[in-house]
Amino acid sequence: MIAVTRLNGSRFAVNPDLIERVQENPDTTLVMVGGTTYVVRESLTEVITLIADFRALVLATAQSYAEGEARRLTVVPGELDTPASPTPLRPTERQTERQTDRQPEQQTERQGAP
To answer: In the chain, at which end, N or C, are there fewer CB atoms within 10 A of the end residue's CB?
Structure first.
């Protein structure tokens, strides 16, 4: 996200991936993919620099992840203190054993049913 300033002085962040074009005539206008427009105080050159800096930060962060140097991102503070147990994609041995233990019981119930 890049932070820009409206003409009234209020600051807001916008996703630069959703900016379709930036116009300067004389005010700088951000035209979003969905058609929404924002008039901002920053010049065309400043907006382009903000976008380039944001993209450079994304690439640098991705590179540090590839090297294993970056911290794991989290939304909840303190979440890293207690690691969550991963959800298995395949049944564990215990789950498989439980299922095989139940199958003979289910078969005898089906055989006894009219």
So the answer is: C
User: According to the 3-state scheme, what is the secondary structure of the chain?
Assistant: CEEEEECCCCEEEECHHHEEEEEECCCEEEEECCCCEEEECCCHHHHHHHHHHHHHHHHHHHHHHHHCCCCCCCCCCCHHHCCCCCCCCCCCHHHHHHHHHHHHHHHHHHHHCC
Q: Please give the distance of CA 102 from its chain centroid, rounded to a whole number.
A: 41
Q: What is the residue whose two structure tokens read 């119930």?
A: 109
**pLDDT of the residue at 113:** 55
What's the average model confidence in pLDDT over 13-17? 96
Whose tokens are 């929404």? That residue is: 36
What is the pLDDT at residue 65?
Answer: 73
Cα 32 → chain centroid = 20
> Could you report the per-residue pLDDT of 51-65, keeping only the tens digit for each?
999 999 988 888 877
Residue 29 is which amino acid?
T
